[in-house]
């Protein structure tokens, strides 16, 4: 009987301990964009939960794009059904944070950073990296993914056209000229899928590389009108007329490039791993820096996202901060880079204990780091209509590339429609 009593007591103790553990466990609701990015979000979450058994990560169904995720967050803000952590596209971060701030629905990570040891902060985050997640004076988020547009190319097709795969053109005129030589009846010289890209990243790229900005110093007036925008649209039209760019959607273009039907292809480095694996031994894939016409003032928009905390419960806020530190830390960034191709957003990630050996063996993945000095913040438009603005701009750009709208008329329409929506 005594043994039976001890068994019952032990079972009761175990049950109590288990119940207490469950009571202390925190579940974080997390939302990110692009379903394909589960390839790094899932293993990172698994590794985090292994190291933090008291915190469970529950992913909501991923948004189809940053724009779709942004709209979902705005709706959830009104109904008070926000996730605990969200990965906001940089270009929509200001608009989102300003909206959430009005309802006190976003955590200022600046205060949390100050509470950490200064040596740790400086070892992991540069001021430039931190600036990507800032909105005004608030450290609204920490950069998780970061990228600038990257040139992918078929080394065999470049050689056949008389080009040098080890020294690709560094400006747009020479890039277009090389692509024209690559072009045959069966092969397109170049593809730059701005006409159906889900956001204005590639449009900003073509404008900013020339040393220009999309808005003037006041941030209230369009700065890409006149000769600046005219040249950009004429360049985009020439990709079709000179280089034979097929006006198909970006996923089809990627498949055509992988099949050896496009010589030069511009894309996010986030899909470098996927493209590399799909090409296999078909041809020699190489990467090169994005062409920049103005070497002194040219910049590139930094795509990607920042992790923000919208949890209200103090226990969830504490757990979310541990999660955000982990996903922006060197261990998680190693997973991101190796499974995608993004630039790491942690200073320690390139060390030999993390990505050092990988970069030594994978030159294509290292290329993107050569554009860090040109990376600039990707900011949206004032007025809360950034998503709508791009959709209207894209419609005009596609019309110009198809030859249905003349470049001059196109840029005039883009300027007037954009400024109207900014108000």
From TrEMBL:
Main location: periplasm
Location within or outside the cell: Periplasm
Signal peptide stretch: 1-23
Coiled-coil residue spans: none
The UniProt record lists the keyword Ribosomal protein: no
Entry-linked SUPFAM superfamilies: Periplasmic binding protein-like II (SSF53850)
Alphabetical list of Pfam families matching this protein: SBP_bac_1
Keyword Transferase belongs to the record: no
Keywords assigned by UniProt, alphabetized: Periplasm, Signal
UniProt-listed PANTHER family: ARABINOSE-BINDING PROTEIN-RELATED, DIACETYLCHITOBIOSE BINDING PROTEIN DASA
Entry similarity comment: Belongs to the bacterial solute-binding protein 1 family.
Record protein name field: ABC transporter substrate-binding protein
Naturally occurring in which organism (per UniProt): Bosea vestrisii
